[in-house]
Amino acid sequence: MSCSTPVQREEFDRYFIPMFNPAPFIPVRGEGARLWDQAGKEYIDFAGGIAVNALGHAHPALCQVLTEQAQQLWHLGNGYTNEPVIRLARHLVNATFADQVFFCNSGAEANEAALKLARKYGRDTHGDHKTQIVAFGNAFHGRTLFTVSAGGQPKYAQDFAPLPGGIQHAPYNDLAAAAALINDHTCAVIVEPIQGEGGVVPADPAFLQGLRALCDRHQALLIFDEVQTGVGRTGELYAYMGYGVTPDLLTSAKALGGGFPIAALLAKAEYAKALNVGSHGTTYGGNPLACAVAGKVLEIIDEPALLAGVKERHQWFLKGLEEIQQRFPIFEQIRGRGLLIGCALAPRFAGQAKALTNLAAEEGLLALIAGPNVVRFAPALIIDQAEVEEGLARLSRAVARLVRDAAQ
User: Fold this and answer.
1) Is 108 marked as a binding-site residue?
2) Is 228 known as a binding-site position?
3) Is 246 annotated as a binding residue?
4) Are 391 and 48 contacting, i.e. CB atoms less than 8 angstroms apart?
5) In whole angstroms, what is the distance from residue 343 CA to residue 336 CA?
6) Is 292 within any annotated ligand binding site?
């Protein structure tokens, strides 16, 4: 069968293990913050590939660097290094708190590596008792057995028991509860500066500051999961910069490759040394194709004007969402930072976030959910004002339909 043979959405249900339930249409082309499906219908993209497409679809500079690298070198494996990966590591180290990096392929892999590093460092440095991990309720850190156990959403973990032990959860933004769990047996505390999948809930500055102090007191590593918040999403290159709290380890993925799979673990040198030769690894991580693209993504995003533009776009969204709220009081709270925005539905519309995003798609807008009660937006960082306004106009039509249906 030729790779150009036409496909239909129904074939997904036939051929795929049923872990996903994608939309009834298939996007086939993208440009910037817009997409077109097989039927030629156009959509404004407020989903951004789940905060991945930071520079939109088919960005010319990314297309060029990918094509150029594809004509030179694709893959080597970890027995060799390459030029793009060194350039990318150098940029990340120079731009952040980190001294050294490890590249892999997904946020889950980056978090897995961070948790393994923390456990190994704790045992190597302090002894076999130093293995406990503190995480937070409603968190999401990935789908490996270790990371799904650290995540604070039992629905993702309970069917895969027995789970790795030594992980305790405190309520998010509850410093006193965290302090009750963190002790001299704790090797790491892992936290999202903004809980993404958990509802787009920003951390209180005092909460992160308190975690930093507790980790210092008990010689535990503070891990920031910036898989969703990193690479410009909040208007800072990484969200920790806006909080003024520096972690020991940081994980980055999603936007780092602008759509090409890549992830990174950033670490201070004194902790990075725990993962010595042979202690951890990856086949595809740090391959030249991914690193060439990620290097260009960082080059474009790590500029003051672009980052300031993210904060400006946040205000565009707030203005438009407040206008919708005045017409249809559907939101209980609008929260988030930069271009990671969550709209929590009012109690009357509890559980209908997916219904609203389905209606939005019918109106020509792609949006996300963050649990059953929160509509989430994570568009391209370079989306223009006309696209924001048009997308919100389409959202308004979807909201009007949801409200009308609820009244019947």
Assistant:
1) yes
2) yes
3) no
4) no
5) 9
6) no
Q: Residue 267 above 90 pLDDT?
A: yes
- How far from chain centre, in Å, is Cα 64? 25
Q: What CATH architecture applies to the domain 73-301?
A: 3-Layer(aba) Sandwich (3.40)
The pLDDT of residue 1 is above 70: no
Query: Is residue 31 annotated as involved in ligand binding?
Result: no
Cα 299 to Cα 85, 104, 258, 279: the distances in Å are 14, 20, 12, 31
- 226 carries a ligand binding annotation: yes
For CATH 3.40.640.10, the residue range(s) in the chain are 73-301
The Cα 300–Cα 92 span in angstroms is 13
Q: Average model confidence (pLDDT) for the chain?
A: 96
Residue with tokens 């919708």: 324
Identity (one letter) of the amino acid at 179? A
| 289 contacts 116 by C-beta, under 8 angstroms | no
pTM: 0.96
352 is in an annotated binding site: no
Rounded to an integer, what is the distance from CA 243 to the centroid of its chain?
A: 18
Confirm whether residue 386 is marked as ligand binding: no
Say if residues 62 and 407 touch (Cβ distance below 8 Å).
no
State the DSSP H helix or E strand holding residue 62, giving kind and residue range, or none if neither.
Answer: helix 60-70
DSSP 357-385: HHHHHHTTEE-EESSTTEEEE---TT--H
**Beta-ladder partners of 101:** 266
Fold adopted by 10-59+304-407: Aspartate Aminotransferase, domain 1 (3.90.1150)
Known binding residue 278? Answer is no
All CATH 3.90.1150.10 domain ranges in the chain, comma separated? 10-59+304-407
Q: What tokens appear for 389 in the block?
A: 């306004």
227 is in an annotated binding site: yes
- In tens, the pLDDT along 90-124 reads 999 999 999 999 999 999 999 999 999 999 999 99
Residue 226, token pair as written in the block: 């910036």
